[in-house]
Amino acid sequence: MGKKQFYDTAKPQESAVLVAVPSYRQTDEQTKEYLDELAFLTETAGAQTVKRFVQKLDKPDRATFVGSGKLDEINAFVKEHGIDMVIFDDDLTPSQVRNIERELQVKIVDRSLLILDIFALRAKTAQAHAQVEMAQYQYLLPRLTNLWTHLSKQKGGIGMKGPGETEIETDRRIVREKITLLKERLKKFEKQNFEQRKARAGMVRVALVGYTNVGKSTIMNLLSKSDVFAENKLFATVDATVRKVVLENIPFLLSDTVGFIRKLPTKLIESFKSTLDEIREADLLVHVVDISHPSFEDHIAVVNETLKDINSADKPVLLVFNKIDQYLEQREQELQEEEADVRPSIDDLKATYMAKEHAPALFISATNKLNIEDLREELQRRVAEIHFERYPNNV
Ligand SMILES: Nc1nc2c(ncn2[C@@H]2O[C@H](COP(=O)(O)OP(=O)(O)O)[C@@H](O)[C@H]2O)c(=O)[nH]1
Ligand SMILES: [Mg+2]
Predict the structure, then answer these.
(1) Of the residues 169, 190, 222, which one is the last residue of a structural domain?
(2) Torsions phi, psi of 114, nearest 5?
(3) What is the mean pLDDT of residues 286-302?
(4) Model pTM score
(5) CA 307 – ligand 2 centroid, Å
(6) Is 205 helix (H, G, I), strand (E, B) or coil?
(7) Is 7 contained in some domain?
(8) Residues in the ligand 1 pocket, defined by CB under 6 Å
(9) How confident is the model at residue 150 (pLDDT cuts 50, 70, 90)?
(10) Cα 195 to middle of ligand 2, angstroms
(11) Residue 259 sits in which domain range?
């Protein structure tokens, strides 16, 4: 898989409709933001969202995820507009996929498959390719009996960057063998990583963490004068990058890695464990937040949850709110339009978060280079603290 893609680039952009089943507790505002994010993922994967379908339910329908009336409604729309695929904001069970596909006769993509696809597009190093491939096979294994029917095989495109036809027709045994081989290959990478890390011993390690698309790679480039790929896309960077940075004569290692997202499939986290080692072994986490995003508080919670999942929740954290340029613009507009609830000033935010965290919180703009000196100073101070505690003789 990985490089062996079945994506026909000559094809016009694929069209998609999105489907979400929020609980009654979820506000409409939240539902809209979640679907905005799903549409952004869809766009990142290369397709265009044509329509969104929402059905409030206590929990998704066991057989078809949405109720039969809603499914008919989706079906009518798909037929009328010649839609290529239906994307669900949750993971579907193999039997749900089978039932829905039988009904709609188009490609059915769930959240895991969509994210896996983006990862496959974005992986650059051999290790990241192997990690994505592993996750793809693990996703495929329980679904081998019903995914990739005649329909999906002809079409290609999103969700079809998985194993080719020959693999699909063979049985689970072969997929299991592939997983075993990949495990061995990944072990070799892990050994190499371990050797690299030994070579880097003696330096404080700092990891940039945060939700996807908040500006981690931009900050990495700013601090280390490196050239990590940054783009207004979700998961622009899947591979971990480590650079040496020197501030006030104290060297430390800074790593940029894959961003987090809500409902990140656990299988994916597992496959990326060795990439996430950079976070797990860090002495200090720089948690970057996009303050201009309406759901930034949700994002902070998702990142903290994911850190818990990878046993890194109790590390020291420096909270950095990025994109204040955009935030201030939004606020300015609210003030001008005399809106009822104008967002708080940066000073108010600072007071709130410093009280909450009992530590400084920084407010910067990485692209407009606002308060970057503060960030450098604070980082230097925190790194020096760790450095002199650990290497008291190494002044
Ligand atoms: N307005 C604004 N955009 C920013 C800022 N920092 C980063 N960005 C943009 O946000 C997008 C995502 O940045 P990136 O560094 O790739 O985010 P990552 O996914 O967290 O690594 C890119 O289009 C950046 O140019 C900022 O301070 N202000
Ligand atoms: Mg990035």
Answers:
(1) 169
(2) -65, -45
(3) 95
(4) 0.87
(5) 17
(6) strand
(7) no
(8) 210, 212-218, 230-232, 236-237, 259, 322-323, 325-326, 365-368
(9) very low
(10) 25
(11) 200-390
